[in-house]
Amino acid sequence: MQDSKFVVYSFIACILFLGVNGESPYRFFTLKVTHGDIYPLGVKQKGILINGQFPGPTIDAVTNDNLIIHVYNYLNVPFLISWNGVQQRRNSWQDGVLGTNCPIRPGKNFTYVLQVKDQIGTFFYFPSLFFHKAAGGYGSIRIWSRPKIPVPFPTPAGDFTVLAGDWYKRNHYVLRRYLESGHSLPFPDGLVINGRGWNGYTFTVDPGRTYRFRVSNVGISTSINFRIQSHKLKLIEVEGSHTLQNTYHSFDIHLGQSYSFLVTADQAPQDYYVVASSRFAPRVLTTTAILHYSNSRKGVSGPIPWAPTFQIAPSLMQARSIRWNLTASGPRPNPQGSYHYGMITPSRTIMLANSAPYINGKQRYAVNGVSYVPPDTPLKLADYFKIPGVFNLGSIPTRPPSGNNAYLQTSVMAADFREYVEIVFQNWENTVQSWHIDGYSFFVVGMDGGQWTPDSRRSYNLIDAVSRCTTQVYPRSWTAIYMALDNVGMWNIRSENWARQYLGQQFYLRVYSPANSWRDEYPIPKHALLCGRARGRRTRPL
Questions:
Q1: Rounded to whole angstroms, what are the CA distances from 471 to 89, 258, 381, 433, 445?
Q2: pTM metric for this prediction
Q3: CATH 3.40.50.2000, domain 158-311, yes or no
Q4: Which CATH number applies to 26-144?
Q5: Family assignment (predicted)?
């Protein structure tokens, strides 16, 4: 009898420890983080491996699954993993960025407990601390629809992951020293597809069958164009949204973005180039993988297919062509279009302008004139424990200042739970910007050149704009989004250009509910790591 009581109490303790939805299935993962030799561009480098792999293993889940992810840090430096696009509903405690989590110390471990609540689609995980992202440590996340939820395309014959992006031969700590000394990063040395350089990876297909290609730009500085020689790309999904199934010969994918395409093996049996090339860069970088027909006896041949390089107009037109599939089910059985985002009037407009100031003689990057400085204590912990002096709400303005002055600050913007906001990203620089918002997806209602004004709203798409978590802003242009603030927490808004993010082009949005209820936000995890001025405090009783 005593043993039975122990089992019951242990089970209850486990559920309280996890603090997630007990009705949905649990999936358990172990990620062991180590250093190891890698050769992405033919040069030996010290990379970051997950379970001995680069890229790391794919995390597969089904809508609403609870994910228990044990991360063991075998590096000699602190480490964090974040989950690009996973919304962490009511649970910014698990977001894995420095504003919400203490780093995992060398030789220690931490268990992320999260739920992929009401999500489907293609995402990825990555190391968020220091400049580790330049050393690898990333992998794919695939969230599948529940079996009874209809999907707007036939089941593909296979599902391929393409993690593509720019790469440097210099080690990540050398690149970090460049930035900390006040210099810009050099130009990347090349591009990689699934951690390999030219013709280093092969996708094998059977003739006549259709396959899903999930493509993410996991680079740190460069937009890319993706294409497959002699084959068409049918777009089906963008960061968790089913789209109208337009067909493209090539497709621009900006930093941090993820797309799914259907590709039919309908050509003569041979090998074909799978191509990624840089976009809007001072010079064009190109790499290839191989699409191999299973009955092929002929290798790749002919020129690499052409794609735009510097031209902005075709990329803007392509971006505007991405539309939400209003009749398709998303993670729930009801059609995506049953949410009429365009019929809701935003309560306010937030305008965010990026800049590249010099502060104290060093290159920095800023949002609305504020260059973010990480505090000594994660913002989420400081907020929970009410630790003074870590951050101030309103430390970043909601509109860019009139002058050119910029300053250093731990910038946190205040917002209320259930607000519905319009955010305008204004880019007056000559480079493409890519913005990501943790904890949310948003509707990209408009983008165009020049200065945004209230009259710009006349061009908004208020019917079938795609919902996503990462958007581009073209040079000297603007992008506008609508977003429902329905997720309480401390959420990172950042540039996906990792040098800009590292040197200050980011801030946190504190979405606040006065209810202090588990209905709005999960409590602090009992096993939360405590550091900085939160060290020595207690999380909560079991």
A1: 21, 10, 29, 8, 11
A2: 0.95
A3: no
A4: 2.60.40.420
A5: Belongs to the multicopper oxidase family.
